[in-house]
Amino acid sequence: MNQLLQALNQKLATLSHGQEGIVKINAAVSDKLVAFKSKPPSIQREILTVCSDPYTLAQQLTHVELERLSHIGPEEFVQAFVHKDSLDSTKSCFNEQKKTSNLEAYVKWFNRLCYLVATEICMPAKKKQRAQVIEFFIDVARECFNIGNFNSLMAIISGMNMSPVSRLKKTWSKVKTAKFFILEHQMDPTGNFYNYRTALRGAAHRSLTAHSNREKVGLSPSCGRVYF
Asked: Which residues belong to any copy of the Ras-GEF domain (predicted)?
């Protein structure tokens, strides 16, 4: 009983810490948006000036993914997708912020990463620079795939497929798109994401037979599975 209570207290403390972190992050983002609107910075720092190594960025994205995912319990998925009223299929429990806050924060993180990718691509004024940013994110997406971070991979691909990016035809003509098309093929929704599910099984197998920590991470979008 003591062991059970100790494990329960640790779990509750972890969940409380996660919720406090979400509140702090949301407050910081809101403050930055207000400050940006009132006084835009004179110089915008592009992502290549912060981190120019695709593998390093993929690693950092994976750390963020794992940290945010660790706070989500199975009960949040139940509350998110079970309907309140069995007679009214339009009312979902997903709008209950207090019960699914960690899950909703994870969804918001995915969306923020999508918009970050699209914004970074659209920021440069010259086509050559935009093409360079696109190729950088393609390399980041490839490293995410190699690590097994499929959630960030999907977010990066989604950001590149946003209309402000996809309409840049002249920019895309300067990009070597072979790797991008391969990654898109892995996330193709055809056959209920057959290619993705195959890649996920491969990541799970590699995790079980891995000999180093670098090979042990497999992180899946939407379903919330992590393999160590």
From this structure: 53-228
Q: pTM for this structure?
A: 0.74
| 3-state SS, residue 190 | helix
What is the predicted pLDDT for the residue at 97? 47
- Hunting for tokens 């972890």 — which residue is that? 14
Contact 149, 219 (CB under 8 A): yes
Question: Which residues, in sequence order, are CB contacts of 116 under 8 Å at separation 6+?
Answer: 47, 159
Enter the DSSP assignment of 218.
Answer: E
**Residues above pLDDT 90, as percent of the chain:** 38
Question: What Cα–Cα distance (Å) separates residue 30 from each residue in 20, 27, 147, 197?
Answer: 15, 5, 32, 37
CA-based end-to-end distance of the chain:
28
Nearest to 171 by CA among 139, 129, 123, 116: 129
What is the 3-state composition of the chain as percent helix, strand, coil, each rounded to the nearest 5? 70, 5, 25
Token pair 């920590």 is at which residue? 213
